Amino acid sequence: MFNRSSDERTEEQRGLDRDAYLFAAGVWFAEFVQWFLRSWSNGSLEAPIQVLEKAAYNIVTFLLTCGIWLILRGRGPYSAWGFIRASAPLVILASGLNTLIGWVLFYRFFMSPAELQDPANFNWLVLAPQPLSYLWVFFCWACFVATVVGAAEARARERALAESHRELQDARLRALRYQIHPHLVFNSLNAIQALLEARQTGAAKQTLELLSRFLRNTLASSTDSLTPLSRELETQRVYLDIEKVRFADRLQVRLMVEPDTREALVPALILQPLVENAIKHGLGQSIDGAEIRIGARRDGDRLHLWVEDDAAVSGPSRPGGFGIGLENTQSRLQTLYGEAGRLEAGPTGEGWRSELILPFEVEVGSGDATATEAAAA
Questions:
Q1: Which of 95, 146, 157, 331 has its CA 20 to 30 A from that of 16?
Q2: Is 174's pLDDT higher than 50?
């Protein structure tokens, strides 16, 4: 049902087996102690054989309880109420069988020779265990186990949900990468062709190297959902260097990144739609060119990232609302951080500013053992 490794399932099953058997031993031992103390206090404990008979009786009931678990353990997963419903018929059956065993033991150990010689004598039934008298003990065990089984099922569902969120995030990252590559490669190859036709082989070679580096960086980011901001900035710098081949002096770039933010962890390619938005809807529609500014600052336990431009767009104003790229970015932030991550975007004078707000996290550890922790405010 859940996407878990066989080792995880085996370890979880071992834990459930251990708890079920321990609960069975616990409830029947507690019932034995309760019987012993009650019999001793009211003076009905007359012979050691009674203790042996009761011990044998409770060992049998313990084995019956373990049998219920062995029947049900492979038929899950169960919710707490689901386990109680599934175990109820077996509990009643085991309690009935338990009553028959109790009668046999009582008949064997507590009947006098004269009474044993008279098979029609049923007076012993008045003193023998009453029918289903220990049903409540079986149900107590079932309720104990149901809480453990239900909790295990809830944990499994949480793991499955977290795994589905990660898979969804990876799918969105792949979709974003596939959106980026086609038109970037198309534009870059056109620029390289133009440079070759102009016999600018050095510039064409440099552009090809930049394109190769950008594709290598984006393909590497496909395996990591989070990456240091410094690496993300390097990817965007290469991308903007490629765009400079098309726009030449019309494109100016400025970084406004605080030094202590460069090691912060951010979703891979999270800035790409923002930079593309500034290129496509800002610089691409501006006659005078534009400056694109990429900034980062820390505000307590929050990281602020932004991309803005000062492009004076000719003709119709920029479209309002979020396009596909910004919607994708906002959705990724919500998937990763919930309410702690958001995207704010809108016009600033003649330009446009898109700002990401997310938890400030850094990578800690050494060697292969790494972890992510939120920095304290």
A1: 95
A2: yes
Q: Using CA atoms, how far apart are residues 156 and 196, in angstroms rounded to an integer?
A: 58
**Residue at which a domain ends, from 129, 159, 189:** 159
Q: Are residues 153 and 298 in the same domain?
A: no
Residue 82 CA to residue 1 CA, distance in Å, equals: 16
For residues 339 and 358, give the distance between their C-alpha atoms in angstroms, rounded to a whole number: 9
Q: Does residue 194 belong to any structural domain of this protein?
A: no
- Mean pLDDT over residues 341-360, rounded? 91
Q: For residues 30 and 25, what is the distance between their CA atoms, to the nearest angstrom?
A: 8
278's tokens: 């500034």
Could you tell me if residue 266 is inside a domain? yes
CATH number at residue 301: 3.30.565.10
Classify residue 369 by its DSSP letter.
E
**Looking up tokens 């090691």, which residue turns up?**
263
pLDDT tens by residue, 78-131: 888 888 888 888 888 888 887 777 667 666 666 555 554 555 555 555 444 555
Give the number of other Cβ atoms within 10 Å of residue 127's Cβ: 9
Residue 107, domain extent: 6-159
For residues 148 and 79, give the distance between their C-alpha atoms in angstroms, rounded to a whole number: 10
pLDDT digits (tens, 9 = 90+) for 41-67: 877 777 777 788 788 878 888 998 898
Four-CA torsion 180, 181, 182, 186, nearest 10 degrees: 110
Spatial distance between the Cα atoms of 254 and 256, rounded to a whole number of angstroms:
7
Work out the widest C-alpha separation in the chain, in whole angstroms. Answer: 122
Decide if 181 is inside a domain.
Answer: no
| Global pTM value | 0.55
What band does 304 get if pLDDT is binned at 50, 70 and 90?
very high
Same domain, 131 and 270: no
The span from the CA of 66 to the CA of 238, in Å, is 65
pLDDT at 54 (0 to 100):
80
Provide the domain count of the chain. Answer: 2
